[in-house]
Amino acid sequence: MKKLKFGTKVIHVGGEPDKETGAVMPPIYQTSTYAQKSPGKHQGYEYTRSHNPTRTRLEQNLASLENAKYALTTASGVAMTSLIMQMLKKGSTVLCGDDVYGGTYRQFTTVYNDRHNFEFVDTTDYKLLEEKLAERPAMIWIETPTNPLLKITDIKKVCDIAKKHEVLVCVDNTFMSPYFQNPLDLGADIVTHSLTKYINGHSDVVGGAMMTNHQHIHKELFRLQNSMGPSSSPFDSWLVLRGIKTLAIRMQRHEENALKIAKFLESHEQIEKVVYPGLESHPQHELAKEQMSGFGGMITFFIKGGLEASRNFLEKVQIFSLAESLGGVESLIEHPAIMTHASVPKEVRESIGISDNLIRVSVGIEDVNDLLLDLEVALESQK
Ligand SMILES: Cc1ncc(COP(=O)(O)O)c(C=O)c1O
User: Fold this and answer.
1) Among 34, 47, 49, 157, the one annotated catalytic
2) Does residue 223 sit in the same domain as residue 161?
3) Distance CA 160, CA 101 (A)
4) How far is the CA of 122 from the centre of ligand 1 (A)?
5) How many whole angstroms separate alpha carbon 329 and alpha carbon 203?
6) Catalytic-residue membership of 101
7) Is the same domain home to 214 and 318?
8) Has 136 been annotated as catalytic?
9) Overall number of domains in the chain
10) Does 2 score more than 70 pLDDT?
11) Does 234 lie in the same domain as 364?
12) CA-CA distance, 119 to 95, in Å (whole number)?
């Protein structure tokens, strides 16, 4: 199965017909417990918090997509982040990108701040990283592209430095999905995903996952998952298995649409600046081309005017839904300062460039001409 191409793996790994009935689509094992032949004699399944056949299929599929030996899924992305923080010894130092998902920032600064020491750094500043990694923190947590500023961190470069100092590297790969970027292949120890986003792709599940090649990390995270309880449900696992089948073609369309929209926005007089890794104007466009096999569906742009202009524009769009989240088939638009990154203090937001005229778009897979027209009409009304 390892040799299969991505577009085949999403459909077939963990998707074998049901052995009992031949059902082509996997059954949902909606059960909490399993009958045993004799005390302790079972078929590998005892209790669904620990193991469930539908979840097993999903984990097999996810592992294959990141070229990993192991995968584990949880009831949300932040639940997986939490298990990873629980795994680190009390009193650890964690270096974290200064432009990560607001919920990750909130968890680190309000939940785990009593247990660990967190330092937020610009992970594209390699001189600073050299210094910080030499102090041997337990882990470096990276999101690339960053959220919402879409800066690209050189994963291989960071992993090379981190290895020298025996620092674990965890990459949140949610924005790119395994279709466009595979951090484990570049040296990362753990890759995480919010399954809620591109992997499920239909905005009807909240879920999280991690993939790794280290058996001891998988074992420890499984122990924590089983002890603390945030396992993903059979039904959600099944929905993700269903959504994942079209991941390859969805990602192609997300990117195709995003590139057209980014170019349109870049040429529009009402727009101050557009950030999209696929644009030549992106400061790390060359690195993006090297590290990723595509540029994804996320665009960040700065509209002329301040908060009022942003608010007016966001109220005018009709096809783009004004909503948090990303990675679904439908286009979403949001205002990070008020929405996804509200838990990041204003002064911190402003110091890294999350201003009141910054708008983030998750480009869906609709007909791009409808999306372009929707944006154009909303921008024209600004004049
Ligand atoms: C990049 C990134 N990582 C992690 C998460 C957390 O995932 P979840 O919402 O599934 O808990 C999100 C959610 O928006 C995200 O955008």
Assistant:
1) 49
2) yes
3) 24
4) 20
5) 8
6) yes
7) no
8) no
9) 2
10) no
11) no
12) 5
| Residue 174 CB–ligand 1 contact under 6 Å | yes
Report which DSSP code applies to 183.
G
Residue 382: its pLDDT value, please?
Answer: 81
- What own/partner pairs with CB < 8 Å and gap ≥ 24 does 366-369 have? 366/257, 366/319, 366/329, 366/330, 366/331, 368/256, 368/257, 368/260, 368/261
User: Is 259 domain-assigned?
Assistant: yes
Residue 226: give its domain's CATH number: 3.40.640.10
Ligand 1 centre distance from Cα of residue 101 (Å): 7
Q: pTM of the entire structure?
A: 0.96
Domain residues for 132?
6-244
pLDDT one-digit tens code per residue, 273-285: 999 999 999 999 9
Alpha carbon 343 to its chain's center: 18
Question: Are residues 325 and 205 located together in one domain of the fold?
Answer: no
Nearest atom in ligand 1 to the alpha carbon of residue 325 is 14
204 and 292 both lie in a single domain: no
Residue 217: C-alpha distances to residues 85, 91, 210, 211, 300 (Å): 12, 19, 10, 10, 35
Q: How much is the pLDDT for 329?
A: 98
Q: Which of 225, 244, 263 is the last residue of a domain?
A: 244
Among 300, 284, 295, 313, CA closest to 340: 300
Q: Is the residue at 1 inside a domain?
A: no
Whether 315 and 178 map to the same domain: the answer is: no
Average pLDDT, the chain: 96
Query: Is residue 7 lining ligand 1, measured as CB closer than 6 Å?
Result: no
The CATH number assigned to the domain holding 334 equals 3.90.1150.10
Cα(281) to ligand 1 centroid in Å equals 27
**In what order do the strands lie in the sheet containing 208-212?**
70-74, 208-212, 190-194, 168-172, 139-143, 93-97, 117-121
Say whether both 233 and 372 belong to one domain: no
Identify whether 368 is part of a domain: yes
Burial call 36-59: b when 16+ CB within 10 Å, e when fewer: eeeeeeeeebeebeebbbbbbbbb
Is the minimum distance from the CB of 76 to ligand 1 under 6 angstroms? yes
| Under 8 Å between Cβ of 265 and 375 | yes
The Cβ of residue 377 has, within 10 Å, a number of other Cβ atoms equal to: 12
Three-state DSSP at 58 gives: helix
For residue 1, what pLDDT band results from cuts at 50, 70 and 90?
low
